[in-house]
């Protein structure tokens, strides 16, 4: 792993290509969710009346209790699921009118790593991400980009290994690499740090923040770690039952004792570490029936 400044430089070269300025061409992206409600065909409503506008580059952490609809929210944003009602706009255009291929030119989606892994090599797995690149790159430039992304995540030695032979943490890095190589303006990741040890958790979140800052990207990630979100996110999107957005804003406004107690039902203390909120969890408010007083 290199230093953060090396990393930012590497990212710039990997993602924009020294010779190309395609990122600048499309400018910043604005994503809007207007009164979005969604339910799976098998059940009731999961997310409801979501209004959200993201019009600035940055790292956005989505937090909230299990089952509240975080993954569903980002699947709707990525056009993997279609809202039951309401609309989602990218740069003012409804994604209903866009083909999946066109949405993928703006948005890279990195799913939770599945246990049903397929038998492709790491290299082939990451190359799939190149299918959605905006430019018609040559094979050589695709391979170069794949290699650089592998170096960035320190997985170049795994390139010939089968995806199915890797550890959970290595799977995670490979799917992040596949998202990055797509060169999206918006990168959306479902719990990208879930299987990583603390060293890589911090590395990946620093990388995502550096990307947002140096490339002007919107990076949206789901995280269960309130302290990592508080430290690295430009903004935190806190969801609460029943599938609504409870608060959106800078960490110091969202990661508060009141909000955490209300949304998670856990007593806590939040202290200030040079402007960064630090959460110290206390007792659960949940009774033996799973109810919160
Ligand atoms: N493919 C699916 N089909 C039916 N219900 C689903 C599906 N995926 C998620 N759900 C349900 O939708 C709700 C929200 O799930 P999810 O978006 O995964 O929450 P989170 O990511 O916040 O844990 C849960 O009740 C979950 O059981
Ligand atoms: Mg989820």
Which tags fit this structure?
single chain; about 290 residues; alpha/beta; Rossmann fold; 2 domains; 6-stranded mixed beta sheet; 4-stranded antiparallel beta sheet; 11 helices; about 25% strand; binds adenosine-5'-diphosphate; binds magnesium ion
Give an account of the 3D structure.
This protein is α/β, with parallel strands linked by helices and 293 residues long. It has two domains: 4-255, Rossmann fold (3-Layer(aba) Sandwich); 257-293, no CATH class. Helix content is 36%, strand content 26%. It is built from eleven helices and twelve strands. The protein has a six-stranded mixed sheet with strand order 6-7-8-3-9-10, sandwiched between helices. Strands 2-1-4-5 form a four-stranded antiparallel sheet, with helices on one face. Strands 11-12 form a two-stranded antiparallel ribbon. A hairpin with a 2-residue loop joins strand 4 and strand 5. The termini are far apart.
Mean pLDDT: 88
The CATH architecture of the largest domain is 3-Layer(aba) Sandwich
Query: What is the rounded Rg?
Result: 19 Å
Distance between the termini: 47 Å
Q: In percent, how helical is the residue content? A: 25-40%
CATH class of the largest domain: Alpha Beta
Net shape? globular
| Class by alpha and beta content | alpha/beta
Associated small molecules = adenosine-5'-diphosphate, magnesium ion
The total strand number stands at 12
CATH topology of the largest domain: Rossmann fold
Specify the number of helices: 11
| CATH homology superfamily of the largest domain | P-loop containing nucleotide triphosphate hydrolases
């Amino acid at each position: 792993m290199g230093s953060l400044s090396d990393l930012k430089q590497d990212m710039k070269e990997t993602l924009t290509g020294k010779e190309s300025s395609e990122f600048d061409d499309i400018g910043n992206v604005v994503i809007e969710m207007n009164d979005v409600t969604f339910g799976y065909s098998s059940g009731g409503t999961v997310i409801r009346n979501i209004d959200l506008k993201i019009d600035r580059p940055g790292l956005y952490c989505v937090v909230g209790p299990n089952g509240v609809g975080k993954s569903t929210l980002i699947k709707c944003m990525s056009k993997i699921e279609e809202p039951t009602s309401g609309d989602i706009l990218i740069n003012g255009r409804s994604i209903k009118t866009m083909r999946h291929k066109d949405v993928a030119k703006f948005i890279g989606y990195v799913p939770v790593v599945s246990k049903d892994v397929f038998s492709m090599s790491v290299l082939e797995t990451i190359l799939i991400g190149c299918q959605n690149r905006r430019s018609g790159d040559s094979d050589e430039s695709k391979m170069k980009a794949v290699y650089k992304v592998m170096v960035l995540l320190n997985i170049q030695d795994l390139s010939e290994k089968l995806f199915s032979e890797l550890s959970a943490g290595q799977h995670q890095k490979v799917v992040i690499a596949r998202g990055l190589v797509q060169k999206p303006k918006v990168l959306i990741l479902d719990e990208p740090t879930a299987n990583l040890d603390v060293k890589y958790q911090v590395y990946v979140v620093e990388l995502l923040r550096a990307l947002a800052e140096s490339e002007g990207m919107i990076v949206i990630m789901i995280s269960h770690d309130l302290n990592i979100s508080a430290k690295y996110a430009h903004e935190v999107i806190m969801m609460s039952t029943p599938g609504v957005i409870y608060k959106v804003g800078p960490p110091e406004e969202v990661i508060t004792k009141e909000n955490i107690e209300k949304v998670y039902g856990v007593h806590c203390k939040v202290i200030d570490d040079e402007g960064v909120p630090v959460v110290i969890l206390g007792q659960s408010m949940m009774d033996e029936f799973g109810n919160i007083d």
